[in-house]
């Protein structure tokens, strides 16, 4: 696989030749050629001077958020009634935590070795981390709402026939549950 670049009049042309004997499909060979290109993966001293420690700080924050997700998810999933069925079924704190840890590692690598390819990947992952953070907030909010409603409106506490006052309270609680 060879990569040739030619620039003329504001147009850049990449010429990629694929190996017909390779077991990889041509698209994989093209991506491999672009990723292993010295132009794309060389460490840029100019970018190294522009980036201070902001990428490492952001990477450390991503890493801590990932560990916090995994720790909180372990506590909630292990506590039984502390997790909703969505959390028990999808295990979202664990895979969200792993993704945030991965994003943090990429941030730190992007500061240490600022190649153009790694910086672009870092930007894409930081934008996607914003989406995953919003998703985490929504999922934890749903879990919290279901926990509080479950604790307030437990009907299994009444093995006997409730009094009219208790029945009124239970009906109000169930109405609140529906509102939530």
Low-confidence residue ranges: none
So what's the overall shape?
elongated
Helix content: 55-70%
Query: Mean of the pLDDT scores?
Result: 77
Structural class: mainly alpha
Q: Would you count the extended β strands for me? A: 2
Biggest beta-sheet profile = 2 strands, antiparallel
Tell me the distance between the termini: 59 Å
Strand order of the largest sheet: 1-2
Q: How many helices in DSSP terms?
A: 8
| Residues in β-strands, percent | 5-15%
Q: Care to describe what's here?
A:
- By secondary structure, this protein is mostly helical.
- Helix content is 69%, strand content 8%.
- The chain contains eight helices and two strands; from the N terminus they run E-E-H-H-H-H-H-H-H-H.
- The chain has helices spanning 26-35, 38-41, 45-50, 54-78, 85-90, 92-112, 116-152, 164-179; strands at residues 2-8, 11-17.
- It has a two-stranded antiparallel sheet with strand order 1-2.
- Strand 1 and strand 2 form a beta hairpin.
- Helix 4 runs antiparallel to helix 6, helix 6 (92-112) packs antiparallel against helix 7 and helix 7 runs antiparallel to helix 8 (164-179).
- The N and C termini lie far apart (59 Å).
- The mean pLDDT is 77.
In short:
The protein has 8 helices and 2 strands; from the N terminus they run E-E-H-H-H-H-H-H-H-H. It has helices at residues 26-35, 38-41, 45-50, 54-78, 85-90, 92-112, 116-152, 164-179; strands spanning 2-8, 11-17.
């Amino acid at each position: 696989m060879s990569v040739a670049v030619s620039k003329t009049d504001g147009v850049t042309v990449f010429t990629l030749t694929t190996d017909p004997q390779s077991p990889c499909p041509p698209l994989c060979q093209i991506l491999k050629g672009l990723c292993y290109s010295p132009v794309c993966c060389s460490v840029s001293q100019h970018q190294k001077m522009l980036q201070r420690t902001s990428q490492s700080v952001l990477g450390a924050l991503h890493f801590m958020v990932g560990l916090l997700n995994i720790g909180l998810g372990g506590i909630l999933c292990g506590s039984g009634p502390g997790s909703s069925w969505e959390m028990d079924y999808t295990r979202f704190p664990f895979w969200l935590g792993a993704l945030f840890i991965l994003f943090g590692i990429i941030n730190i690598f992007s500061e240490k070795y600022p190649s153009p390819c790694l910086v672009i990947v870092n930007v894409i992952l930081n934008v996607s981390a914003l989406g995953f953070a919003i998703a985490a907030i929504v999922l934890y909010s749903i879990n919290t709402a279901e926990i509080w409603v479950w604790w307030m409106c437990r009907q299994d506490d009444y093995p006997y026939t409730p009094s009219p006052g208790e029945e009124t309270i239970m009906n109000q609680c169930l109405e609140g549950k529906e509102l939530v």
